[in-house]
Amino acid sequence: MIDKDNSLELREFFRNSVNSVKEKINPMIVNNPKFEELLYKELSYFYGKTLNTNIDIVVSDDKNSVSITSFNPIVDFGNVSLREKNIGYIKSIFYLENNNLVCDYNQGVLFDRKSIEKSGIRTKVEYETKLETSYSRRYFDENGIEYSDNSFSDIYKFDYDKNEIDLRELVMSSFHKPQFSEYLLPTIPIHVMKGMARNTYRKKGSMAVIHSNVGIATSFGYKRVFSSLYACHPTIPEMLRGGILFAKTDEDDFRFNLVGDYAPDIQKCYERAKNELKDAIVKSNLKEYSKKTYDALLNSL
Fold first, then answer.
1. Smallest Cα–Cα separation from 219: which of 243, 246, 188, 242?
2. What is the pTM of this model?
3. Where would you tag: which of 10, 282, 293, 295 has the fewest CB atoms within 10 A of its CB?
4. Using an 8 Å Cβ cutoff, are 23 and 39 in contact?
5. Per-residue b/e over 166-178, b at no fewer than 16 CB within 10 Å?
6. Number of Cβ atoms within 10 Å of the Cβ of 281
């Protein structure tokens, strides 16, 4: 394990790991302008969650995917007493789907009741172990433009000891893991308590406008669903980041209402967002970073 204060050694570890993957994996994945950056950031993120470089990095036999797995305790909790007092499992998988690059993130953390209560957290519910799950899936087109970002999280209580639980199986099975799609809220998993779900996307023909749907997943379906429309943030136009909010819906009502004075109607909001994004792309350094991404994004508008 690399010392957390040795940043130079850490960066070297990340670079060597990325280069090793690039040598083994399908060149179509490597050719995506975002792959190397995303892989490097994911390794760095894993380390930040665990402060441990004991990470399994495996390119599949068919060379069409790479998985990053950590079985280390999670340490990035605000409650210091819970750090390392847990069983953690994190797995990310990079692969191609219809020529689009997908990053699938899965996380589960198990706590026992005694550790939670010692940290000062009390609950009226009787249980022995608590499981916190967190998932996300991001999509990038072949030009490195992010067009869909989804997340889901939930909390479960169990009556048996945490050491009797197969955490990997729980996290990766359909019992707790939702089914993500590009343009819809995820399909609710078999077991759900009160999951928090989000689906954010933009479509070809309107890349300057970002749609965001959020809702609470229950065993009876989604509740409290809200949708919003944002102009794409000008600072990093190739990424799915919302800038100005200009329309939103009321709870479980999919009719958009204008917010603020961005433009007098929805169509003009789309037009203004498109023109502003064009200007932002031309003024940005995206062309120097990736001409392929720059040209594709500009041409899409």
1. 188
2. 0.93
3. 282
4. no
5. ebeebbbeeebbb
6. 22
